[in-house]
């Protein structure tokens, strides 16, 4: 068995910044366990209910951060925020490409609030994740500091082998967040796992569709009241399993075997 220290180091630094030395690779391989499965978990509206209170604050924070960065009024900031999110998958990408905004400063300013009173999630989540055999990796388009804060508040930080935030989703110097197939291939290569061993667990169907195209198994976390669930009452062919919670995933994961 590989020593525990390398795995702890993985949790303390961004996944894409960890040097893939022999000890780290061996620790990752050992983390696969008997199941050989790697679970790639999204964060917002997957591990916790972001639509409950956090999304409105993120939207407001991003709008104000655009106002501060570009010197525009609120209406124009809202327009740009939505335009760049729709075009690139993340507002920050458009701001960097078209306005030269500092990405790290923008991500900090737009998520500068206390998440503790806002987070809502199913009970007993740490034990439920530990009961899921295989290695867990967080893969979120959200900023890493925000993701860490949410996981820490939920008691989940120690459940994850590595963490990927949007800061680590760069290829050839350019942001490539989900649903980029190139990003997903890069993550799998860095994690040392073949597509057939990996499962992406998401609330966003575009990301799941992209994952299926490169050979991953897919789990759709479906909540009728969340933004990405509207208009999708049936399970698409590229989704292996549809669940509404981690508890549901534990009970119904049989179709993902093999």
UniProtKB/TrEMBL annotation:
InterPro entries: HAD-like_sf, HAD-SF_hydro_IA, HAD_sf, Pyr-5-nucltdase. It comes from the Bacteria. It holds the Pfam family Hydrolase. This is Pyrimidine 5'-nucleotidase. It comes from Bordetella genomosp. 1. The lineage of its organism: Bacteria, Pseudomonadati, Pseudomonadota, Betaproteobacteria, Burkholderiales.
């Amino acid at each position: 068995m590989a020593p525990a220290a390398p795995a702890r180091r993985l949790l303390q630094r961004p996944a894409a910044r960890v040097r893939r030395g022999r000890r780290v690779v061996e620790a990752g391989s050992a983390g696969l366990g008997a199941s050989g499965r790697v679970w790639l978990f999204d964060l917002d509206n997957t591990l916790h209910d972001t639509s409950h209170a956090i999304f409105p604050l993120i939207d407001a924070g991003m709008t104000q951060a655009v106002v501060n960065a570009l010197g525009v009024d609120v209406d124009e900031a809202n327009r740009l925020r939505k335009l760049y999110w729709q075009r690139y998958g993340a507002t920050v990408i458009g701001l960097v490409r078209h306005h030269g905004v500092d990405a790290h400063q923008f991500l900090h300013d737009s998520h500068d609030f206390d998440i503790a009173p806002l987070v809502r999630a199913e009970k007993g989540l740490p034990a439920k994740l530990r009961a899921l055999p295989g290695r867990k990796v967080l893969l979120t388009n959200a900023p890493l500091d925000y993701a860490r804060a949410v996981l820490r508040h939920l008691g989940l930080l120690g459940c994850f082998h590595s963490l990927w935030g949007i800061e680590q989703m760069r290829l050839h110097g350019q942001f490539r967040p989900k649903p980029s197939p190139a990003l997903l291939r890069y993550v799998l290569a860095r994690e040392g796992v073949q597509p057939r061993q990996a499962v992406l667990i998401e609330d966003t169907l575009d990301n799941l569709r992209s994952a299926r195209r490169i050979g991953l198994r897919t789990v759709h976390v479906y909540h009728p009241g969340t933004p990405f669930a509207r208009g999708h009452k049936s399970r698409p062919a590229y989704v292996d399993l549809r669940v509404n919670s981690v508890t549901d995933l534990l009970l119904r994961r049989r179709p993902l075997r093999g």
